[in-house]
Amino acid sequence: MTDPAQSPLLKARVRAPELRGRGWLNTDGLTLSDLRGKIVLLDFWTFCCINCLHVLDELRPLEERFADVLVTIGVHSPKFEHEKDAAALAAAVERYGVDHPVLDDPEMDMWQQYAAKAWPTLTVIDPEGYVVATMAGEGHAEGLARLVEELVRVHEARGTLRRGDAPHSAPKADDATVLRFPGKALALPDGHFLVADSTHQSLVELDADNETLIRRIGTGQRGRKDGTEPEFSEPGGLCLLPPHVAEVAGYDVVVADTVNHLLRGLKLATGEVTTVAGSGRQWRGSVDFDAHDSLAVDLSSPWDVAWYDDRVVIAMAGIHQLWWFNPVQRTAGVYAGTTVEALRDGPLREVWMAQPSGLSVTADGARLWIADSESSAIRWIEDGRMSTAAGQGLFDFGHVDGPADQALLQHPLGLLALPDGSVLVADTYNGAVRKLADGVVTTVAEGLKEPSDLVLTATGDIVVVESGAHRLVRLAPGTLAAAGVDVAGVRHRTERPSTMLAPGEVELDLIFEPAPGQKLDESFGPSTRLEVSASPPELLLEGAGVTQSLRRRLVLSPDVTEGVLQVVAQAATCDIDAEFPACHLTRQDWGVPVRVAGDGATRLPLVLRGLDQAT
C-alpha cells in the first residue's frame, strides 16, 4: 500500500482562507475549525447561472454517497444586483432545493480570497484545512468522487478524518400555497390556465379566475415517469400545438421538463404525459445543424418552448442556443447559436446568446421574440437572422427606460408579443413588467416578485406569472394604456473582478488535464480545439478564431480599456490500456472580463479539466 505521506494530496498545499460572509442559510454558521476532519467542497455559485444550477444537481448524488465525510458549502457570490438581496437568495435556496449550508458572499470577498474566476467554481479543502483542488465549470462529479475517495484513504490512514453527520440542518420547504415558484403558464382554449408549478414538480390547471385549482398533473415527486401519474423535474415552458399537429402527434401541449433535459407531451383530455424528445442525458457534444431522432438526442435545460417556423422552437438555456423539435417527424436539432455565451447578432448559425429563457411569437407568426436573460437583452428572429432590440451585454444591466438601444433590464425570463406589435417583458430581477413599442422601453408595472412569464387571455387581459409570490396575477385594467412614464432608474455593471492584462502581446495558455486513466485521442482528427473571440471585437487586434493548439498569441488593443474575452476549449480523450476504450469529449466556455493596463499580465492561464462522460 502507498505510504499516505507520499500522496501528492499532502504536498504543496495552500491553507484555506476562513469562511466569512454576511450570513448563512441552512445552518447557524460554520468555521473551518468546525469542519476540521471533514472534506469540504466549496461551490461558488450565483442563482441566475444555469451552469451553477447544473452543478447543484450533479452534486446531489455525491453528497448522499459521502454524507459521513463530505460537507458541501455553497458560497453565493452574486452577478446581478437583485441576487445581492438576502431574501432573494433565501427564496432561491428553496426554489432549487439547496439543502447544504450556503454562505452569503454579496461583496464577493470569498470569491476573491479563493481566486475564483468563473461561475461555477468548485474548491476542495482537505480534513486538515488545506486547499487541494480547484475546478471551473460543470461535469466534474466523477472526478470529485475519485478525489474524495483518495482523500478518505489518505486521511483515514493518518487519523485526520472525522466521520459523522454534517454540522447543518436541512431547510423545511413551505408547501402551503397551491403554486410554488411557478415558471411559465399557458392560456387554454377553454379559458383555463395551465401552469408549470416548478418547485412542486408538477403541472397545475387553474380556473379562468387564475386562482381556483382544477387539477394537478404529476405526483409531486422529482422524476421522469410517463403516464397518467407522471413525474417531472422543475418543469418550465409550455407550448400549445396547432390542432392539426396535435391530432397527428397524439398530444396537445409540449412541456419543457428543464432539469430532466427532456420535452414531454401532455394530452389535455386525460392528463397523460409522454416523453417526446431528449435522451435524459445532458448535452456535452459538438455543434451540428443536422436532424436527429428526437428521443436519441441529448438536450440541456430546455427552459421555454414556442410554435414558430412550423415546429417547436426550444430555448435551450443550458447551452445558450435555440433548438427545434418536429412533433410529426419526431426529429430535433439546433436552430440557432454556437454555444458561446455572449451577445452577437447575425445569421442564425453564427449568433451568440446568453441563457435564452423566454419565447413569444407575433400574431402573424413572422417574428420570434427572445428573452436572453444573462445578457439582460430582448432579441428577435425574422427571415433567418437574429437582432437585438434592447440589451448591451453580459455585465451591463439596470432599470432604465427610454430608447431601446439605451434602455436596461435585469435578467428577464419571459415576454409576450401583443397583437398591436408591441412586446411586454417579464423583467424578472427588476420585479417589473416592461413594454417595448416603437423603439422605446417603458415600465408598465413594478413591485412584483420575480415575474417570469406573461399570458394574454382571450378577453384581452394580461396575466403575470409572479414566481416569487407563488401566484398568477392580473394587471389592472388600463395599466397598458397608462404606461409611458419614464423610469430614470440606475445602471449597473457586474462587480466581478477583472483580469488585468497588458496591451499588445498576451499569451493565452490553456492547460488541459486529462481525467485519470485517459489520454488525448487523435483517432478522429485533432484532439484539441480552441476558439477565441472578444466583446467588443475591437479588443482583439490578433488572435481571434479557431485553432487546434491550446496555446494562442493574442494582441490586445491599447485603445480598448475593458471587455470580455470569450474562450471555448475542447479536448477529445480515450481510455488508456482498455480493450474497448471509451471516447470522451471535454468542453468548457469562459467569459473572462479583462481590463487593459500597462502594468497588466502578459500571460492568461486557464485550466481545462478532463471529464469522465463517454461520448
SSE layout:
Layout: E1 14-15, E2 23-25, E3 39-45, H1 50-65, E4 70-76, H2 86-95, E5 102-104, H3 109-113, E6 121-125, E7 130-136, H4 141-158, E8 185-187, E9 193-197, E10 202-206, E11 213-217, E12 235-240, H5 243-249, E13 253-257, E14 262-267, E15 272-277, E16 292-293, E17 302-308, E18 311-316, E19 321-326, E20 331-336, E21 346-347, E22 356-361, E23 368-372, E24 377-382, E25 385-390, E26 396-398, E27 402-403, E28 414-417, E29 423-427, E30 432-437, E31 440-445, E32 451-456, E33 462-466, E34 471-474, H6 479-482, E35 491-493, E36 499-501, E37 504-513, E38 518-520, E39 528-535, E40 540-542, E41 545-547, E42 551-556, E43 562-575, E44 583-596, E45 603-609
Parallel strand pairs: 3-4, 4-5, 36-44, 37-45
Antiparallel strand pairs: 1-7, 2-5, 3-6, 6-7, 8-9, 9-10, 10-11, 12-13, 13-14, 14-15, 16-20, 17-18, 18-19, 19-20, 21-25, 22-23, 23-24, 24-25, 26-35, 27-31, 28-29, 29-30, 30-31, 32-33, 33-34, 37-42, 38-43, 39-41, 39-43, 40-42, 43-44
Pfam families: Thioredoxin_8
Domain Thioredoxin: 10-153
Protein name: NHL domain-containing thioredoxin family protein
